[in-house]
């Protein structure tokens, strides 16, 4: 009669993502009693499988997580290479009389995939370029707003200057004449001649007249302004 074993093998990881150069950890635990035989890790299944870990043939890249454990057969794969992606199986073997070593139980397999590192710069570029464009447009808007504000301020100053000039009339000739004659002494006047301004004429000092013919006498004159009635 064939003995019934209470052995159970658990391989909980269904899929893992790793990057080149990273350390990969594959988990496998067992419980209960089992027939004599090793526990190995295989990559792939069928005739093309490859032994990744064997207790009898250790590898420098593949090591046990817990050395010497009879229940924890998890392993580390250091420095992941481009050829490492694939499906890994934790397998319990048993030795049988006449048939040698055969598979007793195995896990469901863990699919290992590589991150596409070339996508990372593309993703960063796709996120940064729109941000830079928005920032550039914002800067242009700020410059344009400042330029228009400056132009409005200059235009307002020019309008204010023209308005001040329009409110301040230029000095008329009559005001100049009044200013020139304001220092002259006033003469008594009646109601009939209140609009006549008199000038007290004084003789001019004797001075040489160049270019004047001998015997020519000098002349003096005065102007009188009469307001219109």
UniProtKB/TrEMBL annotation:
InterPro entries according to UniProt: Ig-like_CS_Receptor, Ig-like_dom, Ig-like_dom_sf, Ig-like_fold, Ig_sub, Ig_V-set
Gene3D superfamilies: Immunoglobulins
The entry's keywords: Disulfide bond, Glycoprotein, Immunoglobulin domain, Membrane, Signal, Transmembrane, Transmembrane helix
Coiled-coil residue windows: none
Region ranges (Disordered): 171-229
Pfam families for this protein: V-set
Regions crossing the membrane: 123-147
Keyword Glycoprotein assigned: yes
Ranges where the Ig-like domain occurs: 21-90
UniProt keyword Cytoplasm present: no
Protein name: SHPS1 phosphatase
Organism the protein comes from: Eubucco bourcierii (red-headed barbet)
